[in-house]
Write a structure and sequence with these properties.
This protein is α+β, with helices and mostly antiparallel strands. It has one domain: 2-Layer Sandwich (Alpha-Beta Plaits), CATH 3.30.70. The strands form 2 sheets. Strands 2-5-1-6 form a 4-stranded antiparallel sheet, with helices on one face.
């Protein structure tokens, strides 16, 4: 089991969610976040919207998947979020030692779904 965290541009969210649905990955948590990366929060015009300040608006996706779904998840995120410009985002893949479904008490792979 893996826990995948992706930080992407907000305007790419719908496209990434569509790509995930196409790969039958439905369980996603989405959070609006702020941060900075290599561009260090430098003000720039991004798709006719000027971003200012040291922190830029981003979207964080959190997805728990069984091992068979790691590659399809990464492929969906990268194909949906990539523009080829600085600030496209990052994907982090973490080991997930345990998952428990609260409603049934299921543990491990079956709990993810």
């Amino acid at each position: 089991m893996k826990y995948i965290v992706a930080i992407i541009q907000p305007d790419k969210l719908d496209e990434v969610l569509t790509k995930l649905e196409e790969k039958e990955i439905h369980l996603v948590t989405v959070t609006s976040v702020m941060g900075r990366g290599r561009q260090k929060g430098i003000s720039e015009v991004y798709r006719s919207h000027k971003e200012a300040g040291s922190l830029l608006k981003k979207v964080k996706l959190e997805i728990a998947v069984n091992d068979d779904f790691v590659k399809p998840t990464i492929d969906a995120i990268t194909s949906g979020a990539r523009t080829g410009h600085v600030g496209d985002g990052k994907i982090f893949i973490l080991d997930l030692p345990e998952c428990i479904r609260i409603r049934t008490g299921e543990k491990g792979n079956p709990a993810i779904g």
